[in-house]
């Protein structure tokens, strides 16, 4: 028979052995960082993109061991016992931040249009010189004033009717963003500098017997009265060079209407009328230069050759709030639109007139200038036809007409007048505050791309 004391001692040894084994498991179990046989804690599960697998996380121990510490203490781990974590797909910058979604929506609702322009802005039939006392058209031949005792000669004045009729190349770019309540559209256009001229040579000044005139004249008034009683005569080559440039930008907000009028094609098209409001900036620069020569060696005293130069330059800066209506007939294959806009703003303009040797070779250079700000109304009308080649790409062709009033132009700011008190060395021609209308119009050809 076993001694009861031995039985008690054996039971205490078994009990203490079980407590020690449990303590070791608690110290080196999964929460403590000890290796765990595969399948002891995790069970295999299926994964595919878009499958939301529930994950449970628990707080790691404070004394979490690094990989190097783990290997130095336990030795290298077998690859089959490594735990692999599957991360979600990288969703890009911001990780679903509200700004990320905003930029994405703006890109999906944006569009861009680029257009080729063939526009012109002719100055009209502005007369180079003053009227004549008879009231007849000075562009037609008339008997000239005998300034130097040459006898009766035929003369006429030139005008700018043949200037600026060809047009210049330009480009216009528009960027828009569509919202539920409307669209914001910002556009910029620029025109290449257009140079045009009109000239008369000696072959065009052979006299009435050859169907021409003897002279070309720039007539002036005297002290603001009696137009056409004084002036300058040319019997050599006369040339008028004219330069025009324009650029501008505008931004408009086109307000969406609640529904299409006369809706057709199951809601995919119809007549749509939308109001718009915006602001326009327009910069207009023009320059005119006139050169004419005179020579007469058969008179007593002889008149040697000298050349007269007249330069006139203007610059206009228009700041115009505007409003209008966009009318569109929308079809799944094409769109036809018309858009009138009216603006009321101001024009900050300046100009200068330079003359050199106007009366003779002893007449010095004179420069006069003007600068002022005036009220300036504008009107623009454009028609456009767009062909929808795809959901994202559209081809368009159209015509655009822009009118502005109270604009300084080179041919209009010259005051053709002389002073009787100092006719030879005083200021001959001067700059004056005379404003005209301005018309810029022509063909539009381009394409539009909508971001998918």
From TrEMBL:
Record-given protein name: BBP7 family outer membrane beta-barrel protein
Leader sequence residues: 1-26
Keyword Signal: yes
This protein's UniProt keywords: Signal
Organism in which the protein naturally occurs: Gimesia alba
UniProt-listed InterPro entries: BBP7 (IPR011446)
Pfam families (alphabetical): BBP7
């Amino acid at each position: 028979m076993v001694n009861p004391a031995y039985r008690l001692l054996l039971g205490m040894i078994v009990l203490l052995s079980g407590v020690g084994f449990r303590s070791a498991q608690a110290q080196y179990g999964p929460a403590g960082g000890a290796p765990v046989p595969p399948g002891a804690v995790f069970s295999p599960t299926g994964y595919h993109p878009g499958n939301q697998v529930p994950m449970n996380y628990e707080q790691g121990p404070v004394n979490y061991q690094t990989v190097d510490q783990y290997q130095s203490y336990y030795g290298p781990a077998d690859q089959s016992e490594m735990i692999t974590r599957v991360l979600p797909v990288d969703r890009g910058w911001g990780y679903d931040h509200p700004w990320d979604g905003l930029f994405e929506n703006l890109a999906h609702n944006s569009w861009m249009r680029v257009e080729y322009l063939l526009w012109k802005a002719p100055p009209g039939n502005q007369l180079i010189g003053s009227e004549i006392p008879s009231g007849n058209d000075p562009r037609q031949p008339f008997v000239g004033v005998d300034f130097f005792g040459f006898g009766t000669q035929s003369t006429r004045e030139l005008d700018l009717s043949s200037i600026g009729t060809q047009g210049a190349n330009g480009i216009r770019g528009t960027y828009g963003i569509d919202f539920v309540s409307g669209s914001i559209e910002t556009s910029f256009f620029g025109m290449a500098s257009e140079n045009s001229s009109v000239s008369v040579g000696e072959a065009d000044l052979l006299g009435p017997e050859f169907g021409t005139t003897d002279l070309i004249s720039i007539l002036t008034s005297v002290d603001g009265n009696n137009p056409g009683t004084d002036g300058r005569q040319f019997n050599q080559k006369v040339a008028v060079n004219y330069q025009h440039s324009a650029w501008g930008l505008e931004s408009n907000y086109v307000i969406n209407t609640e529904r299409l009028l006369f809706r057709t094609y199951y809601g995919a098209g119809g007549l749509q009328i939308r109001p718009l409001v915006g602001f326009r900036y327009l910069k207009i620069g023009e320059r005119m230069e006139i050169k004419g020569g005179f020579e007469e060696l058969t008179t007593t005293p002889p008149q040697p050759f000298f050349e007269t130069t007249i330069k006139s330059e203007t610059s206009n800066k228009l700041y115009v709030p505007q409003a209008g209506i966009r009318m569109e007939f929308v079809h799944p294959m094409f769109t036809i639109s018309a858009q009138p806009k009216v603006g009321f703003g101001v024009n900050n303009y300046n100009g200068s007139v330079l003359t050199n040797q106007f009366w003779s070779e002893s007449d010095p250079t004179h420069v006069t200038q003007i600068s002022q700000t005036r009220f300036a109304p504008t009107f623009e009308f454009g028609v456009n036809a767009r062909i929808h080649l795809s959901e994202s790409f559209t081809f368009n062709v159209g015509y655009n007409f822009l009118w502005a009033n109270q604009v300084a132009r080179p041919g209009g700011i010259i005051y053709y007048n002389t002073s009787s008190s100092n006719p030879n060395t005083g200021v001959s021609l001067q700059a004056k505050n005379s404003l005209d209308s301005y018309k810029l119009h022509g063909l539009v050809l381009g394409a539009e791309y909508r971001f998918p």
